[in-house]
């Protein structure tokens, strides 16, 4: 069967935390490209923000610039939420909106962050927030403000206050790391001298499922990122791989070879209730629940080469979804259920594609050649994936329209297998 050596490789290889201790190497974010119809916004320095561990206005500015949706204008001034505002002056400088705020250290050691979003065109207030946070969460306060700005001005929920997980490899050490969406605040969930692959966030953001080879074979674990408690979810005969969560967090879809060929199974989050879903003569792997939890997307070579299929969680007939190209793997579904991201091999390159499921329209989103492991942001507007540049693996982010691109790199080693966490409550 064509391409089976490569297919068997990714069956195994496709495919956390409070108080875990920070990793040493920080991620560096590089941005290229801009979105269409950027919103011009001025961000003033917050009054007294130097008292906080993090510069709030700078973090907000970086978040909005990274999104590609905003043209950020340097206010060149410090303005609090109580300052008198000359709206005409800001409008004349080309700003449709203005961000102002202040920071105050409270008696209990927390930092009170206040902000206002002002409409310079209508000379009025669009939004305001007051957030009190412990010192280690001042960055989070800034991300929440950026989220509020993004939502008020675009109508789409912002994802700056979310987290990502990924695997780094340095020498013989593998680390499962969790970081803020901007690459800051890195914490180590797991260290191992054996490979760690396929991390997948639980919908509530408190747990991550992953595959570890610490038992000298691939085994699926679920780890609580708060308590650090680990549960073995799948340790059947053969390979246990590619976990993904149901939208309600009660079950996982996994790929197991316990009965011969790798097939798709569903298992309860505590490891009970294992049920086989697919039943083909080929290899079925990389399962992903649909946004409504009623279907499973998965990769299968039943047609000769790997393609993406969809079937009901109750079983039954599988319907092929991808038809462009002869090698399509790693399905991921946007939160609205409308867009499928996947990796396609064409002209010898492995590249990120997006498929509009309603129209069948495909869009190539990357210009690199060794892409892997796509993962949607929880608002469905961006896709993070692993790629290779100069023989070093790094992470990249692209908007679903392909206009905005980011690259996240680290000097500490290879970084791969990204998964973007959910909105936090």
From TrEMBL:
Domain of life: Bacteria
TolB N-terminal domain: residues covered: 27-125
InterPro entries per the UniProt record, alphabetical: 6-blade_b-propeller_TolB-like (IPR011042), Tol-Pal_TolB (IPR014167), TolB_N (IPR007195), WD40 (IPR011659)
UniProt subcellular location: Periplasm
Signal sequence, start to end: 1-25
Keyword Cell division included in the entry's annotation: yes
Record's keyword annotation contains tRNA processing: no
Keywords on record: Cell cycle, Cell division, Periplasm, Signal
Family designation: Belongs to the TolB family.
Subunit-structure text: The Tol-Pal system is composed of five core proteins: the inner membrane proteins TolA, TolQ and TolR, the periplasmic protein TolB and the outer membrane protein Pal. They form a network linking the inner and outer membranes and the peptidoglycan layer.
HAMAP family given in the database record: TolB (MF_00671)
Function: Part of the Tol-Pal system, which plays a role in outer membrane invagination during cell division and is important for maintaining outer membrane integrity.
UniProt xrefs under PANTHER family: PROTEIN TOLB, PROTEIN TOLB HOMOLOG
Cited NCBIfam families: propeller_TolB (TIGR02800)
Protein name: Tol-Pal system protein TolB
Annotated source species: Janthinobacterium fluminis
Gene: tolB
